[in-house]
Design brief:
Layout: H1 7-13, E1 18-23, H2 28-35, E2 41-45, H3 53-63, E3 69-73, H4 79-87, E4 92-95, H5 101-110, H6 137-140, E5 146-151, H7 154-158, H8 160-164, E6 171-174, H9 176-182, H10 192-207, E7 211-215, H11 219-228, E8 232-237, H12 238-251
Parallel strand pairs: 1-2, 1-8, 2-3, 4-5, 5-6, 6-7, 7-8
Length: about 250
């Protein structure tokens, strides 16, 4: 019996366009609500949300069984933390702040078993292997890991072509908020100067044959990115949807 099939990775390899939602509330209850809302993928954020390993696992458990894929963003490329994420069953990772091909290669090693990589062998204790219930897990796990890297500053953009050439990288996500700040447009990811860089980067990712991704709640930019063929597009967050809905409801009764 092999490792579970990564349907998210399979869809990206077919150049499909997948619509996603960011999860920042760090709660399995809201994660399950999002899971039954029709999105193709959900990003559980460990970088800017108060998520630790057990809370991330509880959200993965909550969305399991729904027709949606879970992607997890760690706070950094820390090898020990990535190992823990993989062992709790994360198959798709979005690793932030990538600035070089060397960094990308090290992350590929972190998520791969030897001889390709250095992922620790502890599958007998892991949820990922169904607690050693998947006899072929060690020999099949690597093929089902989807590694997405987040480029979000000028250094990373300058190194983008080299990053895209790294074997084992399935896709690259452009982080518009940090990129805008790095370019001197803090809080203005929609600025024309920023969007020119974003569009060029997304185009280069697609031309390289890798999956492209981005997050925005701007309807005009969403339409632009969809037309460009961006593969994994997040169109909002649970925080934004809940906060916006609460404020809109209150405004009706002022």
């Amino acid at each position: 019996m092999p490792a579970p099939k990564n349907l998210f990775k399979e869809a990206l390899q077919k150049d499909e366009q997948l619509i996603g939602m960011w999860l920042g509330l760090a709660n399995p209850y809201t994660a399950e609500l999002a899971a039954q809302s029709g999105y193709d993928w959900l990003l559980i954020d460990g970088e800017h949300a108060p998520n630790n390993v057990p809370v991330i696992m509880s959200q993965l458990q909550a969305i399991h069984g729904y027709p949606v894929s879970g992607v997890v963003r760690p706070p950094s490329d820390d090898r020990v933390l990535l190992k823990q994420y993989l062992d709790i069953g994360v198959q798709s990772l979005l690793v932030p702040m990538i600035e070089s091909a060397d960094q990308a290669r090290e992350i590929v090693k972190s998520v791969s078993y030897a001889p390709k990589g250095v992922r620790g062998v502890g599958a007998a204790l892991a949820r990922a292997s169904n607690f050693n219930g998947i006899p072929d897990y060690l020999t099949t796990a690597d093929a089902e890991i989807c590694l997405l890297l987040q480029v979000e500053n000028s250094i990373g953009v300058a190194a983008l072509d080299e990053i895209l050439a790294v074997d084992g990288v399935d896709g690259v996500f452009i982080g518009p908020a940090d990129l805008a700040a790095d370019m001197g447009y803090l809080g203005k990811p929609g600025a024309p100067e920023v969007q020119a860089v974003v569009v060029d980067a997304l185009t280069r990712i697609n031309k390289a044959g890798k999956a492209s991704g981005i997050l925005t709640s701007d309807p005009v930019l969403i339409a632009t990115y969809r037309e460009m063929g961006v593969n994994f597009l997040a169109v909002g967050s649970d925080v934004g949807v809940l906060g916006g809905g609460l404020r809109a409801l209150r405004q009706k009764y002022i």
